[in-house]
Amino acid sequence: MTKKAIILLSGGLDSATCLAIAKDMGFECYAMSFRYGQRHTVELDAAKKVADAMGVKEHIVIDINLGTIGGSALTADIEVPKHHKVEDMGKDIPITYVPARNTIFLSFALAWGEVLHIKDIFIGVNALDYSGYPDCRPEYIESYENMANFATKLGTEGEKIKIHTPLISMTKGEIVKTGVELGVDYSLTHTCYDPDENGRSCGVCDSCLLRLKGFEEYGMRDPIDYM
Prior knowledge:
With 227 residues, this protein is of the alpha/beta class. It has seven helices and five strands; from the N terminus they run βαβαβαβααβαα.
């Protein structure tokens, strides 16, 4: 019987690596992306390219306008913070945090899983080299998985739902190394919070800095274009 999994695919470095890991584990992959009111759609173009290149069974894009709520530099008219190096990034939860985003995304994945009878969900959260988001931490994932098994038809009928977080304790360098070994084409991915009109990454937002840190640690040039 074919193992199936839903992969939350943003089009970024982490989610592309997560997809590659799921495929390497033998899962037939169903990718889910979101048009959630983010300030650009470059990442959705990247998600489609990654999904096509990696041969997912199906790729769907869900529309939710979190811009109606706002509260984040990614969904409202708030300037994206920029820094010269990773060490300049603050320790507090940054303004790029989108309120409850992973909870919302996982809930949609959970619903699709019920329809497709899929018990395995992959999300590329990371609790080591990350921006301090509360919904990227192990205790959050553990709590969500526990809730999912109480809140769904699958779970209450004894089908154990599993939220897989293969990147959660990796450094960015380890993530890049894993992806390269699994054949991920990182030139297709997009990570930047604030790209220019041509889709080029800024190189100085938190997301870009962490991505560049990963390639530097691995000893490889990042294959995407920067401003």
